[in-house]
Amino acid sequence: MNISVLGCGRWGTFLAWYANKVGHNVILWGRENSKNYIGLKETRKNDYLSLPEDLELSNSLEKSVSFAEIIIISISAQELRSFANQLKSLNGIQGKTFILCMKGLEATSGKRLSQVFGEEVGKNINLAVWVGPGHVQDFVKHIPNCMVIGSENIEITKKIVQELNSDLIRFYYGQDLIGNELGAATKNVMGIAAGMLDGLNYRSLKGSLMARGTREISRLVRAMGGNDITIYGLSHLGDYEATLFSVHSHNRKFGQAFVEGERFGKLAEGVATVKALRDLSIQYDIELPICNAIYEIIFENKNAKETLEDLFLRPVKFEF
Ligand SMILES: NC(=O)C1=CN([C@@H]2O[C@H](COP(=O)(O)OP(=O)(O)OC[C@H]3O[C@@H](n4cnc5c(N)ncnc54)[C@H](O)[C@@H]3O)[C@@H](O)[C@H]2O)C=CC1
Ligand SMILES: O=C(CO)COP(=O)(O)O
């Protein structure tokens, strides 16, 4: 099958490598002037992997879209709306299958990425999300993982899984698009929290963070029309090791750098997502104490240690 991957950063480049590895014809697209694209064009490698010879690199969006039956998108989540707008103007996108491989919520609206994409591109496409745990650094060493693909149409989900499943990635069929998307986006916020715990030498609190983090996000998922149990699946809890504990996680590193007064320059999606969560917590009248604490530390200059201690002074309550 012909597959294009739009976005040639850390994850997009891996996705193209993977689609090629499992036997597809692949184009990897990047913006002509992007640092990642220029680097790949010059050397055919990045910090994580080398591109196989038969994988085509292109900076033509038109060509990449018309070539493929399945189009995978992996750019920064906050850029998706304007990018979708660009795609909408291309001929021949109708009937194609798009897979969003990003983890975030639109900061200004709290919308899920499939909502954002659907609003811009319209209904005459198939749309799915691919989320769950996985770092390129592990996959290129042939360390396998389990991930989840979900959509509103189980036949589309099954078709994608059939094309992409392998002994490197075992896929599960997602059953709750709302829960999968919220779960994937919010695990990044818990990753930032974990990094802050690392930076404060409070590592032993990560177990509690896992228990209480899943609990607060499951309340939000239920309020937003999803199934709260999804949060205990691959898109959220299943991604905690790769985020809360992994040396590779950008969100965890961002959190640690933040409390240590350092700058972390790479994309940490949880930063924008926590803004969306602040508004969703008000809109749905759901308490999100951990997410709110992270918001206050990052955007309201609250002291991280004191804000954490304040969480302990909240009234005692039942666990579930
Ligand atoms: N296990 C998983 O499912 C993983 C998912 N991700 C997700 O993948 C997404 C991308 O993350 P990374 O690859 O780490 O980021 P990155 O910063 O390495 O790459 C993002 C790419 O998007 C491109 N881009 C940004 N704005 C654009 C626009 N308006 N139009 C076209 N291209 C644009 C940039 O040039 C860059 O090449 C994030 O949402 C992240 O959460 C990342 C790693 C693992
Ligand atoms: O989603 C990921 C792992 O599953 C990547 O997490 P980071 O973006 O925090 O590195």
TrEMBL record:
InterPro entries with a match to the protein in the record: 6-PGluconate_DH-like_C_sf, 6PGD_dom2, G3P_DH_NAD-dep, G3P_DH_NAD-dep_C, G3P_DH_NAD-dep_N, NAD(P)-bd_dom_sf
Binding-site residues for sn-glycerol 3-phosphate, renumbered to this chain: 103, 132, 187, 239, 249, 251
GO molecular function, a single term: glycerol-3-phosphate dehydrogenase [NAD(P)+] activity
Binding sites annotated in the UniProt record for NADPH: 11, 31, 48, 103, 269
Coiled coil, from the record: none
EC top class, as a word: oxidoreductase
Residue intervals of the Glycerol-3-phosphate dehydrogenase NAD-dependent C-terminal domain: 176-308
Catalytic activities: sn-glycerol 3-phosphate + NADP(+) = dihydroxyacetone phosphate + NADPH + H(+); sn-glycerol 3-phosphate + NAD(+) = dihydroxyacetone phosphate + NADH + H(+)
One Pfam short name: NAD_Gly3P_dh_C
Compartment(s) of residence: Cytoplasm
Location of the Glycerol-3-phosphate dehydrogenase NAD-dependent N-terminal domain: 3-155
Enzyme Commission designation: 1.1.1.94
Active-site positions on this chain: 187
Keyword match Magnesium: no
Keywords, sorted A to Z: Cytoplasm, Lipid biosynthesis, Lipid metabolism, NAD, NADP, Nucleotide-binding, Oxidoreductase, Phospholipid biosynthesis, Phospholipid metabolism
Pathway this chain belongs to: Membrane lipid metabolism; glycerophospholipid metabolism
Function, as annotated: Catalyzes the reduction of the glycolytic intermediate dihydroxyacetone phosphate (DHAP) to sn-glycerol 3-phosphate (G3P), the key precursor for phospholipid synthesis.
Family: Belongs to the NAD-dependent glycerol-3-phosphate dehydrogenase family.
Name of the protein: Glycerol-3-phosphate dehydrogenase [NAD(P)+]
Source organism of the structure: Neobacillus ginsengisoli
The encoding gene: gpsA
